[in-house]
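Hi U.,

Before I forget, here's the chain from the pilot set. I'm dumping it here mostly so it's searchable later in email.
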Amino acid sequence: MSSDPLFVTVFCQQIRKKYFEDYLENLRWTFERWYSEIRLDFCYFGSFQDVSLPPAGAVVFVQTLPPEFEAADQRLCFLLNTEQLTRSDQLQGVSEQLDRHPQVHVLDYSTANIDVLQQR
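Structure:
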């Protein structure tokens, strides 16, 4: 019995593309190889006004959520953080986004960062 794939759209600002393109393509390769039920699509955008959420599926925002972001009910929403959250300025920025959008989950490279977020 096969299930329908989960479509995940990853949104990344064009200005950050050169820093994240390899990282995100590696995610795609990993998911295609090991998790055939997950499909990744990437959207590189210039301005947050250019962001249009897909009608269904999960969304991942790299580093920053759009200022006017509102998650649809039951949609999986993630913020991909790659900054060191022991730096107070970085922790403050991520914390402010999560306070405005408590339905958003954090994806992070570091379990230490997750611990810092949980203790805030």
